Amino acid sequence: MAGSSPCSVSGTPTFSCVSHGFVANFSGMAIKAPSISKLVTALRKTYPDAHCELNFTTPLELLIATILSAQCTDKRVNMVTPALFARFKTAADYAAAPPAELERMIQSTGFFRNKARAIQAACREIADKHGGRVPDTMEALTALHGVGRKTANVILGNAYNKSEGVVVDTHVIRLSQRIGLTRQKTPEKIEADLMKLVPREQWTMFSHWLIWHGRRRCYARGPECEPCELARLCAKIGVEK
What we know:
241 residues; mainly alpha; two-stranded antiparallel ribbon; two-stranded antiparallel sheet; 11 helices; 3% strand
């Protein structure tokens, strides 16, 4: 962004920081509860319109879009899904689709053969075991072929307005570590830390806020630290200052 002064990112993150009232706790979580409140306030103020950037109108459409979003941008997925959603309306439609046709329609999202198999397997189970309705529980969703906890959290939080966890994608991993919310490395452990820190009613929005911030300000390389709205709350772990 013009006029900004990006920070550089160190290849070796350090985990010691006491700055602007921030106190690191190296047992796993790394931010004081009062600072979480300030962080949530700052994120909400900065991104009042944050939302899931995958276009959908039904839980099934969101499931399909989320599967397609693996190793693919939301922008590309949103270019593919209008024709896909017009062609296939129900889980049974996807399950019965000729594999070659489905693969052709989603090819530009990458890994299209694996994605097509995952879509058809999950939709077959939805049609056969759930009456064609995408399940609305973590247990039932993660029992579907190819549906992990992250995808289940996306569906539950955005299609069913249920807070069962925090979506942890590459942006959430990077920002939660950089800000100092966790020192964990795996999505499961990072999610566990965030669930302890963030009030449950904000779990879905918290992931949206971090994702939006990661896409618009706190980049993997060259994060815009100087104009950053979270600068006074961020530990800048792994960022050369």
